[in-house]
TrEMBL record:
The species this protein was found in: Undibacterium pigrum
Example of a GO MF term: carbohydrate binding
Residues covered by the Glycoside hydrolase family 65 N-terminal domain: 24-285
Annotated protein name in UniProt: Alpha,alpha-trehalose phosphorylase
Domain Glycoside hydrolase family 65 central catalytic residue range list: 341-707
Length: 797
């Protein structure tokens, strides 16, 4: 079992009909609110709205989380350690549940519309990946026999990050009389309270927003709030637009935590009443606090003029462009097809693209992990954007650059005289990990960021980024290894090795070890990359290099020192077994007693003290196996197979970041069944709630890992000597699959069917690449290159 928490995953599964471009709920499901609110969540990388109904969930509010979130908008609080120590993270930041502007209460005479009362005659809710609309269509009869039809639509604009819109249509079917529509902003919202599960979060549960100002004029109502500790201001505004042939009156109401516009309509049987509601959020993270209310007014005025239909059309156009670049198509497996598109859609909805925000472990769909950004971004999610929306990938790197000053400061706190250390988890650049053995000790975050910059440069050759931001990040973070590691003579060696002690690698079931293989191998890559950049810039961009060197006080001998440390890096290897050791001590530990561990004791982290876990040979997730993927060229196929065989036996996959990596290496070493099984465990992880905790938010790393599973796994995609290279296989379960890749300004489509692989240049002029070591090219004139899957037979079309 995986990330299970309170309920069993069986009790928390949704069965959606299989369809290619959406998810549909055909029956009102009264038990799974928390889960479906996550799955039906909408977002645009800035605003995230859980999929709660407009009227809320009145009877079972405890089973519902009416969350609205803004990427990067957080409250902070100091972390209280009963036993303190120097240098521990001091402040936690958590993504705040902000005022809820979705609220619409519907009243038919004296009865309130509530799906838990009366009778639901028909019901459907649909999330459409192509239109970006969340639609609910239902027929309902009240206890007193009044029937109505309701058709509501909601979108969170991709075009304007501050705006979302709703369209709400009510038709009285068997009565005429008074209908009231109460459209509100509810500021009495709370974050969830902490439980025992470290993955949920520890945010305080009380209200943290302090009201500064209220504005209600014409059809616009707005709150201006400020957070207590982080001092951020937020304007939440709505504008309502009622369209009906019936007569009506409207009034504005103000409560302490609620702003409301009430419409009282003399409804006529059969006549549609339509309310369009436009909502906006503006915060002081983007604009001066004093301008937030007027910005809200302007933005709402503009979208009100455009109208819901126009916003919906732009939303669809944005998504059409996204899918034209990024769609992954699979024939022969409808469940998988649905899962893959669901994942990509949620990634697009979750990712910050303003250079100031990033992508949280749970996106903007829930409060798990408190809205923090982790290494998940660089290693699991970044490649998806790099190859599908490179401009967003750059924004993710710009986010890291923005917080380089905080990373420098953190390095000083951690006793490093120079360099920068990125936080393990954060929103605003400050280390928020209160449990350092599985947090700050994961120094590999520095190398993960450098790795993504290297990948970015390979895929885009964007020198502007390297010169203005990338090089500075890579060099400053590389310096940290020099302060962290030291040279020593390891037993059995006749020369000194560069050793890095007291770190935690990706596997969080093994903490504070010496020479974690992954960390050291990635640090080696990082140091070499940094030294290469110095050489390249010195030779080709002398002036900019001199400026950078002066800015960061780079010494003449630093690059050579990096090179030497990389060349002498300790990389634990066990000759007898022919495997890479996860760290210096891993193989000496007692193997976890898997045979006698009951299923319900997984994930181990919820059932055993960390020390019990740490002293055993047991992995939460891919560690050495991840190095086999990221540093692919450094290992032979036999190495990979032996490592895979060994680590598979001791890995629980308790982390959702694990199975995708095992799938990719299994595909590479020829274990096709395993590759498929691990892939399936990743691809529908949230849709099937297989880790049992999707109600706290989707797992964005696994979503990115799904794309990696196709591209890196089944298609064997790697970058070799600056070129894309493929080694595709087709799982027997599928008829074909197809995906696209942006590379150096070109867009390539790869289709693999039972007999052939077809490479097609969709955009650009020419691209050279490799297919199983064979050099191929597609050009504008000869856009398709078809090659037999089994023999190296090339057919040009
Ligand atoms: C994993 C980490 C990951 C974090 C956030 C943990 O369970 O072990 O590798 O960064 O979740 O997704």
């Amino acid at each position: 079992m995986k990330d299970d928490t309170v309920q069993t995953s069986d009790a928390l599964q949704h069965q959606f009909p299989l369809e290619g471009w959406g998810i549909t709920e055909n029956q009102l499901d009264d038990w799974h609110h928390l889960l479906s609110e996550t799955l039906f969540a909408l977002g645009n990388g800035y605003i995230g709205l859980r999929g709660t109904a407009e009227e809320g969930n009145q009877r079972t509010a405890a089973d519902s989380l009416n969350g609205s979130y803004l990427n990067g908008f957080y409250e902070s609080e100091s972390i209280q350690y009963p036993e303190n120590a120097y240098g521990l993270a001091r402040t936690n930041q958590f993504m705040l549940n902000v005022p809820n502007a979705k609220c619409l209460t519907l009243m038919l005479e004296d009865e309130t519309f509530d799906l838990q009362q009366g009778r639901v005659d028909s019901y459907q809710r649909h999330l459409d990946f192509r239109t970006g609309l969340l639609t609910r269509t239902l027929q309902w009869t009240s206890d007193q026999g009044r029937s109505l039809r309701l058709h509501s639509q909601r979108l969170v604009s991709f075009e304007n990050k501050h705006v979302y819109a709703m369209s709400y249509e009510v038709t009285p079917l068997n009565f005429s009389g008074e209908i009231k529509l109460l459209s509100a902003i509810d500021a009495a919202v709370k974050n969830i309270t902490a439980g025992d599960d470290p993955r949920v979060g520890s945010a305080i549960s009380g209200p943290v927003l302090h009201k500064l100002e209220v504005k209600q004029e014409n059809d616009i109502s707005a709150f201006l709030h400020r957070t207590h500790n982080s001092g951020l201001s937020l304007a939440t505004a709505m504008q309502n637009h009622l369209q009906t042939e019936s007569s009506y009156t409207s009034s504005l109401q103000q409560g302490d935590d609620k702003l409301e516009q009430q419409f009282t309509i003399r409804a006529v049987q059969g006549q549609i009443i339509k309310l369009d509601k436009f909502c906006s959020y503006f915060s002081s993270r983007d604009y001066p606090a004093a301008s937030l209310l007027s910005l809200s007014q302007q933005a709402l005025g503009k979208v009100r003029e455009q109208g819901f239909a126009q916003l919906a059309a732009s939303q669809q156009a944005y998504l059409a462009d996204f899918w034209a670049q990024a769609d992954v198509h699979i024939s022969g497996d409808a469940a998988l097809q649905q899962g893959i598109r669901f994942n990509m859609f949620h990634l697009l909805q979750s990712v910050g693209r303003d250079g100031k925000t990033n992508i949280a472990a749970k996106g903007l769909t829930g409060e798990g992990y408190e809205g923090h950004y982790f290494w998940d971004t660089e290693i699991y999610i970044f490649p998806f954007f790099l190859y599908n929306k490179p401009e967003i990938a750059r924004k993710l790197l710009e986010y890291r650059y923005q917080y380089l000053p905080q990373a420098r400061e953190r390095a000083r706190q951690m006793s490093h005289a120079s360099g920068a250390l990125y936080p393990w988890r954060t929103i605003d650049g400050e280390e928020c990990s209160a449990y350092f053995p599985a947090g700050t000790a994961q120094y590999h975050i520095n190398a993960d960021i450098a790795y993504s910059i290297k990948l970015y440069m390979d895929a885009t050759a964007d020198m502007d980024f390297l010169l203005t931001q990338g090089a500075e990040i890579v060099l400053e973070t590389a310096r940290l290894w020099m302060g962290l590691g030291h040279y020593t003579r390891l037993p059995g060696h006749d020369t000194d090795s560069f050793c890095i002690n007291e770190v935690t690698g990706p596997d969080e079931y093994t903490a504070q070890v010496n020479n974690n293989y992954y960390t050291n191998a990635m640090a080696q890559m990082h140091l070499r990359f940094a030294a290469d950049i110095v050489r390249q810039l010195q030779a080709e961009h002398t002036e900019q290099f001199a400026e950078l060197a002066a800015k960061i006080h780079l010494q003449a001998d630093e690059a050579n020192a990096w090179q030497r440390a990389a060349d002498l890096m300790a990389l634990p290897y066990n000759k007898e077994r022919g495997i890479h050791e996860q760290d210096d001590s891993f193989l000496n530990k007692k193997v976890w007693d898997f045979a006698n561990t009951p299923k319900e004791n997984y994930p181990l982290l919820l059932n055993y003290h960390p020390l019990v876990i740490y002293r055993h040979q047991v992995c939460k997730q891919a560690d050495v196996v991840l190095a086999l993927l990221l540093l692919s060229d450094q290992f032979s196929l036999d190495d990979k197979r032996r490592d895979f065989d060994f680590y598979e036996k001791v890995t629980t996959h308790d982390s959702s970041l694990s199975t995708c990596i095992f799938s990719i290496i299994a595909a590479e070493v020829g274990y096709q069944d395993k590759a498929y099984d691990y892939f399936m465990q990743t691809a529908r992880l949230d849709l099937d709630n297989t880790h049992g905790n999707t109600h706290y938010g989707v797992h964005t790393a696994a979503m990115g890992g799904t794309w990696l599973g196709i591209a890196y796994g089944f298609a064997g995609m790697r970058i070799k000597k600056g070129q894309l290279s493929f080694a595709p296989v087709l799982p027997v379960q599928w008829q074909d699959y197809q995906f696209r890749v942006h590379f150096q300004g070109q867009l390539l489509e790869i289709t693999v069917n039972q007999t052939h692989v077809e490479y097609r240049l969709l955009r650009g002029t020419a691209l050279q690449f490799q297919h199983r070591g064979q050099s191929l090219q597609v050009t504008e004139q000869q856009a398709i290159c078809k090659i037999s899957l089994h023999q190296a037979e090339l057919i040009h079309a």
